[in-house]
Amino acid sequence: MGNWTVETRNKIAVLMFGRLPDNQMDLDSLEELAGLLEDIAQRTDEVSVVMLKGGIDGIFIKHADLDILRRAAAGTLTPEAGRAWPRALGLLESIPQPVVAAIDGQAWGGGLETALASTLRVASARSHFSQPEIRNGIIPGGGGTQRLPRLIGKGPAADLILTGRIIGAEEAHRMGILNAVLPTEAFAQLAEDWAAQLTRNPAPALFAAKRAILDGLALPLDDGIALERDLFRQVIPTSAFAHH
Q: How far apart are alpha carbons 107 and 177 in whole angstroms?
């Protein structure tokens, strides 16, 4: 029995993480997540959007399982195990569907890094965020030093990574980490309603727009413009304009 459950409704595949006692992310759960994402990537007809959420009250993903960090420190992490984080988080970015991280509570370390690899992030008012690694004498190892500055800029990212401080939902929203802060009461339903904005748009355009944004960020501007033009040409025959 895995630690993820999947429910598909209204074109949203909701992936819920519930690992007792407190939603620490271990290697098996990362492998399980990667497998689920690879499956969902093939289901573009029925799934337009993916949502990640925590299944333990007050926790999205607490952080990476400390056993992973201990094994890394001891040098006993196999190369395959070392690829588990980048593989799972890379799939959040590479699958066609936009991914919404719906955070209700704690998202620290690897939990925040998982949210950063998602396309969009919404959180309840009670949520809190941190890259606390520096306080333990290490640095983020799940992409935090790379995705956070690309999302919010070098200065604000350096502030969070170099201090390890904890911020609340409103500050995370002001910094640009979050796209929206929603009431804690009824958060699960409100987050799905928020994500439903996306599913009302044609799926081919959603997928192309995600690719243009993410792949374009890795390119010089001229190359990004060319990529956008190619993707535009791909979707225009399937759009509403083609039927008038």
A: 12
Q: Is the peptide bond before 21 cis (omega within 30 degrees of 0)?
A: yes
User: What is the pTM for the complete model shown?
Assistant: 0.96
Cα 202–Cα 15–Cα 43 angle in degrees, nearest 5: 40
Q: What is the DSSP letter of 21?
A: T
Please identify every residue annotated as catalytic: 113, 133
Q: How confident is the model at residue 242 (pLDDT cuts 50, 70, 90)?
A: confident
Residues 6+ apart with CB under 8 A from 92: 37, 50, 52, 99, 114, 117, 118, 119
Q: How far apart are CA 81 and CA 64, in angstroms?
A: 13
Q: Find the Cα–Cα–Cα–Cα dihedral 181, 149, 116, 45, rounded to 10°.
A: 100
Residue 58: both structure tokens together: 């007050």
Rounded to whole angstroms, the Cα distance separating 13 from 99 reads 9
